[in-house]
What does this fold into?
Amino acid sequence: MRKHLGTFLRLLPVIVSMLLIGAHFLRSGNLFLVALCLVLPLVLLVRHPLAARLLQLALLLAAVEWMRAAFVFVAARAAAGLPWVRLACILGAVAGLSAAAVFVFYCRALKERYRLG
It folds into this structure.
């Protein structure tokens, strides 16, 4: 039981990142990507290297999408003369979380779980 809790806590940044990007896609009305973001964390139940690599790819794409959204939203707010620094900080932090979550798979316990070289 304790081992499973440790694994869950190590994978929590991955799960939270996928839920956040899913909420982002829900805001834009893209229900296919919302469903994909909700299903992808379930792939973590499969102990295979491809499962980890798939999530790493999804997290990198999520970080890229957050940065794209940050540039678009910040530019729109700046053009309208509205405050934009807080928005840039929040979206930058979420992009950073998604990018950092890629590296959880480099801890020893998850390398063993997913048989990563």
